[in-house]
């Protein structure tokens, strides 16, 4: 079929632009498969051995020192400023990506990904609810995050999970080895801030 100027295509396959709908769909499928194979779509972090690329391995606690539902504050991946304040929590129930003998030890960055409200403020008045195993509510817009399920939003405005600190256990030692998700206010979690 020949499409003349100022006429619309009569068949759904020909838009008059030289590319068929089938070609667009095949291209989209190939591109999606390539992204999934690279790990970008799955949200899995780039790994170097057991650690995430470029992140320091930092001792942040001891399994034997943790008490259920008593968060411990630490900073990671840098020691300051306060945007790197995080909470290490023994939940008492298994958690996705939890470590330790019961798989119930997790850690999260303390800045709400919505607009940076402090869930782990400098006065150590942690915003953690033991009954629901949630971090929050954020003091600004009341977002809460499920500590048992990768920091997924349970209520309010955030559109992203709370950044989860990747952990490793070696004997009794707990190490931070990376961060899944972007810390609020950072274009790159490893960018040096003073």
Question: How would you describe what is shown here?
Answer:
The chain has one helix and twelve strands. It has a four-stranded antiparallel sheet with strand order 7-8-9-10, with no helix packed on it. The protein has a three-stranded antiparallel sheet with strand order 3-12-11, with no helix packed on it. It is globular and about 65 Å long. It is mainly beta and 194 residues long. It folds into two domains: 1-44, no CATH class; 47-180, Rieske [2Fe-2S] iron-sulphur domain (Rieske Iron-sulfur Protein, 3-layer Sandwich), CATH 2.102.10. Strand 1 (47-48) and strand 2 form a beta hairpin. The model is unreliable at 38-50 (pLDDT under 50).
Question: Which terms summarize this structure?
Answer:
194 residues; mainly beta; Rieske Iron-sulfur Protein; 2 domains; four-stranded antiparallel β-sheet; three-stranded antiparallel β-sheet; 1 helix; 12 strands; 9% helix
Short description:
The chain has one helix at 21-38; strands spanning 47-48, 51-52, 58-62, 72-75, 85-90, 105-109, 128-129, 134-135, 144-146, 152-155, 164-170, 173-180. With 194 residues, it is mostly beta strands.
Strand content: 25-35%
Strand order of the largest sheet: 7-8-9-10
**CATH class label of the largest domain:** Mainly Beta
- Per DSSP, the total helix count is 1
Mean pLDDT across the residues is 84
Global geometry: globular
The CATH homologous superfamily of the largest domain: Rieske [2Fe-2S] iron-sulphur domain
By DSSP, the count of extended strands is 12
Measured distance between first and last alpha carbons: 66 Å
CATH level-3 fold name of the largest domain: Rieske Iron-sulfur Protein
Q: Report the uncertain regions.
A: 38-50
Could you tell me the radius of gyration in angstroms? 22 Å
Structural class, judged by helices and strands? Answer: mainly beta
Task: Give me the strand/helix succession.
Answer: HEEEEEEEEEEEE
Total separate domains? 2
Q: Do you know the CATH architecture of the largest domain?
A: 3-layer Sandwich
Q: Main beta sheet: strand number and arrangement?
A: 4 strands, antiparallel
Residues in helix, %? under 10%
């Amino acid at each position: 079929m020949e499409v003349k100027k100022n006429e619309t295509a009569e068949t759904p396959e020909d838009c008059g632009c030289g590319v068929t709908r089938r070609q667009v769909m095949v291209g989209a499928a190939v591109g999606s498969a390539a992204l999934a194979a690279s790990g970008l779509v799955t949200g899995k972090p780039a790994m170097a051995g057991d650690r995430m690329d470029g992140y320091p391995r930092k001792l942040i606690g001891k399994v034997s020192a943790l008490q259920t539902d008593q968060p411990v504050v630490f900073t990671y991946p840098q020691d300051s400023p306060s945007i790197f304040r995080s909470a290490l929590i023994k939940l008492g129930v298994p958690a996705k990506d939890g470590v330790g003998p019961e798989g119930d030890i997790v850690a999260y960055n303390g800045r709400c990904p919505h607009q940076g409200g402090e869930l782990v403020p400098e006065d150590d008045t942690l915003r953690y609810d033991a009954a629901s195993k949630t971090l929050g509510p954020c003091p600004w817009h009341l977002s809460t995050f499920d500590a048992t399920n990768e920091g997924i939003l349970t209520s309010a405005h955030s559109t992203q999970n709370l950044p989860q600190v990747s952990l490793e256990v070696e004997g009794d030692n707990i190490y931070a080895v990376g961060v899944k998700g972007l810390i609020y206010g950072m274009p790159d979690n490893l960018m040096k801030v003073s």
